[in-house]
Amino acid sequence: MNEPLRNLSPTWQPRLYAVCLGILIIILLCPVRVFAKTSRAPQFSIAFTKQRSDKPLDGRMLLLLSTDPSEEPRMQINDTPRTQMVFGIDIDGLKPEESVFVDEKAWGYPLRSLRDVPPGEYYVQALLHRYETFHRADGKVVKLPMDRGEGQHWNIAPGNLYSKPVKITITKNNTPVRIVLDQEIPPISVPADTRYVRHIRIQSELLSNFWGRPMYLSAIVLVPEGFDEHPEVRYPLMLFHDHFVDGIDDFRTEPPDPNLKLDYSERFHISGYNRIQQEEAYKFYQQWISPKFPRYLVVKIQHANPYYDDSYAVNSANLGPYGDAIETELMPALEKKFRSIGQGWARFTYGGSTGGWESLAVQISYPDHYNGVFAACPDPVDFRAYTLIDLYKDTNAFYIEGAHKRVAQPGMRDYLGHVTITIQDSNAYELALGTKGRSGEQWDIWQAVYGPVGADGYPQPIFNKETGEIDHQVAAYWKEHFDLRAILEMNWPTLGPKLQGKIHIYCGSADTYFLNDAVYLMEDFLKSTSNPPYGGEVKYGDRAEHCWNGDPNLPNYLSRLHYNTMYLTKILERIEKTAPPGADVTSWRY
Description:
single chain; Rossmann fold; eight-stranded antiparallel sheet; eight-stranded mixed sheet; 14 helices
């Protein structure tokens, strides 16, 4: 120790040592802070060429990353554990050749951000899901993806721009990757009529007025054997509610393909399910053309719209008057062209899942139009069990809230009860695909159909998709307008006499999406009815997953292929019991 320091007072020496030590630490650390390399999240620069569009475009830019080279990344995005990665941003007026950057701020699924992507090799692809501008009759101006004949699937929607997949390496210090959207998904060809499968398409005045542009409704009709040879006969009609379809996929006029490459159904844990489907479709055809088989029309409507692959067949604030358009525009045109009897006693409706909810909602909304509903595994028919959420009492859609803990709400389970996705994850998936309810997926269409219009013109959310917080004012609107159990309970004195004997509901007790809980609550109400009693049936498939439809003798994977015949006995009995005097109940039994 040198002399000056020795001469300092004892109280100053420790302080000076501390100062010197601090300076030494700063000196030692400075080189590290100055020269250390910082990690940089992946960043992608995306543009489209003038050859693809010479005008600015709106839409959702989706960046897709995959570790699986078996197919394009755009074909590998879903809500299962097998999904690859998607990151999305909104674009508004992007000009040709102008770049937009997708970086760590983009909302991602299943990883929240690009900064969470681990180093490694990936196949990258970008796709622009194009929006168009609608000037609606309610004064709202919104940008949405119009269906273009594909049934609201962004990865195959005609007109969407995309890039070819390329292999990249992501490191801890990334430089921007440039991607050019130089591909375009081509239009979808219109299927031709066949002997048994026919088509009809009309422009809806009601929907065109609402959306401020031409809007169309279509239907695929399975006509009976002898339809063309018996022009004088008029037929009963079975309205089969389903998702968007481009044909009658459970009807096949040729034997199963002997060269079919057999697949494996993870849902039903069975090998060769594609062959089973072909076998059952061919059996249906053989039954359809057999002598003395009852002759009737099977109708599948096409009502894809800017929010989903169908409208839920009801009038709603965000989608417009689809219920009235179907019932007062499409059905009369269809019944005239295909010679339906055209009276309520000769119309029936059925379907599963979305189609189960739709068929029940249509029977309730238009009770005189149909003589019976067979609703299988319906979407939530009581919002006290909106899957596992009680929209009226719960405060959060994502968690069961306790005194000192919270438990994540499951959104989907397999046949053994294993949870494959949570409700929070399902909504994170939708947020990656589109903001403002524009994902084209399940939770978004529910809030679009059931909810009021928000201040921005888009559906008012029932809950915050990031936090799960439930908006109970919106829930009150849902209860009044679309809670089917609540509507029946509030209006049973007037609806009951019109629905007696018409309501049939079927659901598996192990439904994949927990839809059986709402059916239990609906059954409690129906059993309590009097003056009149409802007179229908509610049945459950023991341990059956989605979408059990009422056959106690066959496994679910088979019975779900028999919608068009399995309710026929009950339908014929209902016709015989309720047909008015003088009604034609024989000519269509040739």
